[in-house]
Design goal:
four-stranded antiparallel β-sheet; alpha+beta; about 750 residues; D-Maltodextrin-Binding Protein, domain 2; disordered N terminus; about 30% strand
C-alpha cells in the first residue's frame, strides 16, 4: 500500500495513495494472490496464587492535537518524554511533548518555510540527542526528501547521494528513519529491501544492510535503543542489533506479523504486537509476555500500531491508528503493583471459530470490569468438528462445567434448546428493543423456539445473487433449478465455480427441502439435488481451481462456513465472460460491496437477496448452568451496545439500526476516497478480465440497508450434519459414488447422529 502525498498548500485531504488491494487471480498459467502476565518491577512473578498482585494496565491518554491536524508519528525526547508530531491542513507542523503530566506545544516553523511552496508529503520527524530535528518525506515524483534543522528556526534540504540513485523501481522508497547514538541516519529502502546508514556530516553512505522484504509501507524494519544501538529486521523473523560502530552485537528472534513495533532500554528489547508486549534479550530465544494483548488496544483488529516507546519508569507509550475512521489513540502502559495479577472473576466464552467483534468487545468489557478476566476459547480446528468434539462439548455443558457464553454458529442450537442447555434470553432481547431500534426479525429468530429467544446474532451478512434474470428465477426451488439445468445442458448456470461452492451453496439453498422438520433426510430429494450439482459442476470448469491449486484453501472448512457463509463463489467475477449465468456473493461490510457492485454497474445488473436469507454471525447464547449468569448477561448486553455495534470492524453488518444506517456515511469518508481494489483474471481459453473497483455509491449502500430490513430467514447449519453431507457429496461430485448411494449414506449417518 503506497501512501499519497498531501498538498498542504491547498489543504486537500489526501492522506494516502489510493490503497490498492490486489485480488489478482490468474489460473492455469499462473496464480497470484486472491486476496500473559509477567514480572513486575519488584521481580515478583504475576499469577503466584489468587492473592498475587501486580500487572501492567492500560491507561487512555488525551491527544493534544486540534481538529484538522493529522498525527505524523511519535518519538521520544532526550529526557525520555513522549513526543507527538502533527501537521495541520494548511501545512503547519507542530511538536507536542508530554512533560509533567501536560502537553507542551511548539510550532516547527522551519519546515513550513522550507517546504511551504512544494508539494511534499511528510512521513515522520526524528530528533538527535543534541536536539537537531530531521524530517523525511516524498514529493509528487515519489522522490524522497530529508531535511534538517539544528536550531529549530532554520532548515536545509540534505542532498544525500543515496536518495538520488534510481533503480528499476525508481527512487528509493524511504519508509523508515532512525538515528543512532553516533547521530547516523538509518533509512529503510522498501523497494530494494535495504537499510542504508548515512553519515550526518558528509551525507555519504557508511554501510548498507539487506532487510526482510516488506509487505506494506506501514511496516518498519529499523528500531532504536536508548543506548544508541539499532535493531534491523535483516531477514524474516530475525532482528540484528548493531552498535554505534555499526558492528553486530547480537540478534533477536522475533517472528511476528507486519505491524511490529520495538523499543529498548539498551539491554532488554520490548516488542509490541497484537499479542501484547513481549520482553526479550538479544541471543536468548526465550521471551516473556509482560502484558497480554487480549486486554489491551494492541489486540484490536481496528488498531494498527504506529508508535511505541519506553518511558522513564519501566512504562510504555503506544500510538495506534484506526485507518478506517481516520483517527488515532494514545495509551500509557504502567505497572500497577496493587492490581490483582489474576482478576477475581472469570467469564468463559466459547465458539467454534474466532469472532472479531466478540474478541474486540472482550477488551472493552475487561477494561470497564478490571476484576473480570474474559477467556475466549475455540475448537482450534479449521477442517471441521467431529462427533466426538460435540459429545465432549455437550458433556461439559450438561455437567455445568462448560463455557458461560456460547457462540452458537455451527453448533446444534436446536438440540441445546431441547436439552435445556441454553438460557431464555427473551427478556434480554425485549429489553434491548425497548431501548433502541434493532433489526428485530434478525435479532430474535436465529435461535428461537415457541416464541422464546435463546440466541441473538451480534452481526450478520447478506447473500446476494445477480446475473441473467431467467437463471436467477431458476434458483427459487430445487425443482425449478433441476428443470432449468436440464433445459440448458451445455450452459454453466454458475459461470466458473469450485465444486465445493456448488456443493455448499445448493445445500444451503434447499436444506429445508431435503431435511424434514424432525431432522430426517428425504433421500429422494437429496439424490435429485446431488444429481443437479453434478450436472452444474460439469459445465462450471472446476478444474480451473484444481490446476491453480486453490480449491483446498479455506474451502469446506468450519472456519469458512462460520466466517464467510456458503454463498461465496471464488469465481463469481467470471460472470463478465458468462453473462447468461448468475453470480453470488456475501456482503458483510461496505468494502465487500466494491467488486460485485462494480461488475453490476458495468453489466447493468441489479442484486437480489436469496430467499430472504441472512447469515447470522456470532449467535450469542448463555449456558443455563453457568455460575456467572448475571455477568454473562451483562457481557451479552455489551455486545449489542452502540459502542460495539458501531465499530468499523468489517466482520459483519450491525443489527443495531442506528449503526446500520451509519454505514452510508462511510462512502463519503476520507478512507473511501483513498482505497480501491483491483482484480485480474486470466483463465486459459477465456478473455482476460481486469476490474478496478472503488467504493459503492451512497444510493447502493442505502439500497443494501433497505434490503437488510426485509430479511428474516437465518442461514444456519449444524456442523456435524454438514460434515456428513460434504464428505458424501464430494465423492459424488468427483464421480466415485452415484447420487442415490450418497444420499442413502448421508441419511443413515444423520439418523445415527440424531439418535445420539
Amino acid at each position: 500500500m503506497a501512501r499519497k502525498y498531501k498538498n498542504r498548500q491547498n489543504s486537500r485531504y489526501l492522506k494516502y495513495v489510493r490503497r490498492s488491494i490486489a485480488l489478482l487471480f490468474t489460473a492455469v498459467i499462473t496464480i497470484g494472490a486472491l486476496s500473559g502476565c509477567g514480572r513486575g518491577e519488584d521481580g515478583k512473578e504475576a499469577g503466584q496464587g489468587d492473592s498475587a498482585k501486580g500487572r501492567y494496565v492500560e491507561e487512555d491518554m488525551e491527544l493534544p492535537v486540534q481538529e484538522g491536524e493529522e498525527i505524523l508519528n511519535m518519538a521520544k525526547a532526550k529526557e525520555g518524554n513522549p513526543v507527538l508530531y502533527s501537521q495541520s491542513e494548511d501545512g503547519q507542523v507542530f511538536r507536542y511533548e508530554y512533560r509533567d503530566s501536560k502537553w507542551e506545544k511548539e510550532a516547527l516553523e522551519w519546515i513550513h518555510k522550507l517546504y511551504g511552496e512544494q508539494d511534499i508529503y511528510l512521513q515522520e520527524i526524528a530528533e538527535t540527542k543534541d536536539g537537531a530535528q530531521i524530517v523525511s518525506g516524498m514529493d509528487e515524483e515519489m522522490a524522497p526528501h530529508i531535511a534538517r534543522s539544528t536550531d529549530g528556526q532554520t532548515g536545509e534540504e540534505l542532498e544525500i547521494p543515496y536518495l538520488r540513485q534510481q533503480s528499476d523501481y525508481g527512487y528509493p522508497a524511504v519508509t523508515n528513519l532512525q538515528i543512532d547514538g553516533a547521530g547516523n541516519y538509518w533509512i529503510n529502502d522498501m523497494y530494494q529491501a535495504k537499510c542504508a546508514v548515512i553519515d550526518p556530516n558528509s551525507l555519504e553512505t557508511l554501510q548498507e544492510f539487506n532487510t526482510a522484504m516488506l509487505l506494506s509501507s506501514e511496516q518498519r524494519t529499523i528500531f532504536g535503543a536508548s543506548n544508541g544501538d539499532t535493531a534491523v529486521n535483516t531477514e524474516d523473523g530475525l532482528f540484528t542489533i548493531y552498535g554505534q560502530d555499526l558492528k553486530e552485537k547480537g540478534t533477536l528472534q522475533a517472528d511476528y506479523q507486519e505491524q511490529i513495533r520495538m523499543c529498548s532500554d539498551g539491554e532488554l528489547w520490548y516488542i509490541l504486537t497484537e499479542k501484547g508486549i513481549t520482553r526479550m534479550a538479544p541471543g536468548n530465544e526465550t521471551s516473556e509476555v509482560i502484558m497480554d494483548g487480549s486486554v489491551g488496544q494492541m489486540g484490536s483488529s481496528m488498531n494498527m500500531a504506529a508508535g511505541f516507546i519506553r518511558g522513564q519508569k519501566d512504562d510504555f507509550y503506544a500510538l495506534y491508528r484506526q485507518a478506517k475512521s481516520g483517527t488515532c489513540s494514545l495509551v500509557h502502559y504502567v505497572y500497577d503493583a496493587e492490581a490483582p495479577a489474576v482478576p477475581e472473576h472469570t467469564l468463559r466464552v466459547f465458539g467454534l471459530s474466532e469472532n472479531t467483534t466478540v474478541q474486540d468487545a472482550i477488551r472493552g468489557f475487561q477494561k470497564s470490569h478490571p476484576d473480570v478476566k474474559v477467556e475466549f476459547g475455540t475448537s482450534g480446528k479449521e477442517e471441521g468438528i467431529s462427533m466426538d468434539d460435540i459429545r465432549t462439548l455437550n458433556t461439559e455443558l450438561l455437567s455445568g462445567n462448560g463455557a458461560d457464553v456460547l457462540l452458537l454458529d455451527g453448533l446444534p442450537a436446536d438440540a441445546y434448546i431441547e436439552k435445556g442447555i441454553l438460557a431464555d434470553l427473551t427478556d434480554l432481547a425485549d429489553g434491548l428493543l425497548s431501548q433502541e431500534p434493532y433489526l428485530e426479525p434478525i435479532l430474535k429468530n436465529a435461535a428461537q423456539k415457541d416464541g422464546k429467544v435463546y440466541g441473538m446474532p451480534v452481526k450478520f451478512s447478506v447473500p446476494i445473487i445477480y446475473g441473467n434474470e431467467e437463471a436467477k428465477e431458476a434458483f427459487a426451488s430445487a425443482d425449478k433449478l433441476k428443470a432449468y439445468v436440464d433445459a440448458h445442458p451445455s450452459e454453466s448456470v454458475v459461470g466458473v465455480a469450485e465444486r465445493s461452492y456448488i456443493r455448499d451453496f445448493l445445500f444451503q439453498m434447499y436444506q429445508d427441502e431435503v431435511i424434514k422438520e424432525d431432522g430426517r433426510v428425504d433421500q429422494e430429494k437429496l439424490a435429485a439435488l446431488l444429481e443437479t450439482e453434478v450436472k452444474i459442476a460439469a459445465n462450471a470448469r472446476p478444474e480451473v481451481f484444481d490446476d491453480a491449486k486453490v480449491s483446498q484453501v479455506g474451502i469446506g472448512t468450519t472456519a469458512r462456513l462460520i466466517q464467510q457463509g456458503m454463498f461465496n463463489n471464488a469465481g463469481s467475477q467470471a460472470i463478465v465472460n458468462h453473462p447468461d449465468s448468475i453470480a453470488t456473493d456475501t456482503l458483510y461490510s461496505v468494502t465487500s460491496m466494491m467488486i460485485p457492485y462494480t461488475i453490476m454497474r458495468e453489466m447493468n445488473l441489479s442484486p437480489d437477496t436469496l430467499k430472504d436469507f441472512y447469515i447470522p454471525r456470532g449467535i450469542v447464547g448463555i449456558n443455563k448452568n453457568s455460575k456467572q449468569t448475571e455477568l454473562a448477561k451483562e457481557f451479552v448486553q455489551y455486545l449489542f451496545s452502540g459502542e460495539i455495534q458501531g465499530k468499523p470492524l468489517d466482520d459483519g453488518l450491525p443489527v443495531l439500526e442506528s449503526a446500520l444506517a451509519g454505514l452510508k456515511d462511510e462512502v463519503s469518508s476520507d478512507y473511501a476516497q483513498e482505497i480501491s481494489m483491483t482484480s485480474g483474471w486470466n483463465i486459459d481459453g477465456e478473455e482476460p478480465i481486469q476490474i478496478e473497483a472503488g467504493y459503492p455509491t451512497a444510493e447502493e449502500v442505502e439500497d443494501l440497508i433497505g434490503k437488510c430490513r426485509t430479511l428474516g430467514r437465518p442461514a444456519i447449519w449444524d456442523c456435524i450434519i454438514w460434515n456428513i453431507y460434504q464428505s458424501e457429496a464430494d465423492a459424488c461430485l468427483e464421480g466415485s459414488m452415484d447420487a442415490k448411494t450418497a444420499a442413502k449414506n448421508i441419511a443413515q449417518k444423520v439418523d445415527t447422529y440424531l439418535a445420539e
